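Exercise 7.
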Amino acid sequence: MTEREQAHKRRLAAVLVVTGLLALVAAAWIIDALGSEAAPDYRVEVTRDGQVLRSFSLDDLRAMESHIISQYGLSEEGPRVLDVLADAGVDGFTQLTVMGLGMRDDGVLVLDAAEVTPDVILDFAQTRSTVKIAGPEIERAERVRDVTELRVD
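Solution. The predicted structure, written as C-alpha cells, is:
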C-alpha cells in the first residue's frame, strides 16, 4: 500500500470517528429533549394516612398565587407549599414528606412542620414540566425534583 493510500485511509477513519461522535451527541440530545417533559398527566398529590386529599395538575399549581424566593443566586418561583396544603384541606400537620420520581435525586425529603415556612415553595422547573421543592433552608443537594406527593402526618 502506498503512502498516499495510507493517508487516505487515515482521513477516512478520522471522518468516520467524527461522524460517529456527532451521531452519538445528536442521539443524546434527542433523547434528552424527548424525556425532558413530564407526562401530560403529571400531578402532585397531597395525602394523609394513605388517602389522597387533593390531586393538583401543573395547571392547578400555576393558577395559584406565585411567590419568588432567591436561592443560590437564582430566582425560584411557584406556589407556597403551605398554600397547596391549605387548598387540599390540610389544617395542621407535624411532618411533611416530599416525594418525587427519584430520577435525579433521592426522591424523598422529610421536613418537620416548623421547617415548612412561607418561603418553602414548589418551584416550576425551567426545563421540565414538573415542580421541585425549594426554600432558603433546603440545601440544593436535599431538594426533591419532579415532586409527585406531599404526604402530611
